[in-house]
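#data-curation
PF: Archiving a pair of folding outputs for the training set. Convention for this channel: one message per protein, sequence first, structure tokens after, nothing in between. First:
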Amino acid sequence: MNLKKIVIVLLFACFIFSNSYAQSLKKKSVAHRIEVSKEALTNFVIKGNGNAKTTNFKVKFPGYPTVVVQGNMLNEKALAHLKASKKGTYIQVFDIKDATSEEKGAKKNPPLIFKLTTNP
């Protein structure tokens, strides 16, 4: 009988923990969520804080390894992943570095989340 009570209490605790964890994930805000077509994302220029010129960033497509991009536009590898992506795919651009990123006390550039809205 004691074992049943312990199992029930543990299951209840797991449920409470998982529910509170899920709620905390919903509260985390992403600075920018953008719905965009493949064509628009192909030509999109990533800008840093105060429109500073972006030197590099990382981009993550579902099902592919993270691509490190030098410059401020998608490179060939990222464009190939974009071409293979379907409508509704979420693409994350993060770790955006610009000319001011290395300065002491510089604000970190927020990640960008793109959702593909059209599938040509």
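PF: Second:
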Amino acid sequence: MKNTFFTPRNLFVFIALIFAASTRLFPHPDNFTAIGAMGLFAGAIMNNRTLSLVLAMAVMFVTDSIIGFYDGFWVVYIAFALSIVLGWIISKKQNMLSITTASIASAILFYVISNFGVWAGGGMYPMTGAGLGVCYIKALPFFYNGLLSQVLYGGLLFGIFHAVKNWKPSLVKA
């Protein structure tokens, strides 16, 4: 039976996930971490979908264990899982357009889902359509940071991976 866990590619992705997750542990502007890019990257690069989901979620869980869990963390995990699924969608056709489009879609999904969770959690905004609208409007600065970090960190993760793949294919072979 072929070992699909300990491949050079999976080791490379695991190291990249550790780097990406570490961005949560150091001071950073609100929502400016590599987490969304990490999910998209794991989903797109790892050949085993289950492993990409489990490994990326585990890294997220470990960093949450360090920094502390927060109200509505499960909503963030749903949005994060969808970033991984977007990675699965682009896994067979990775180019600048597909990666950028998936990065933007991931940031939008995170914004929509996480802020719906804030609103639905009650207490901060009235449970009305207007309250939901106010929640989304007040969250726009967080969206901009999330979008920027998604595109920048995604470009970094995918860029390094594809540069290494072209430079030394054995380091990232499946």
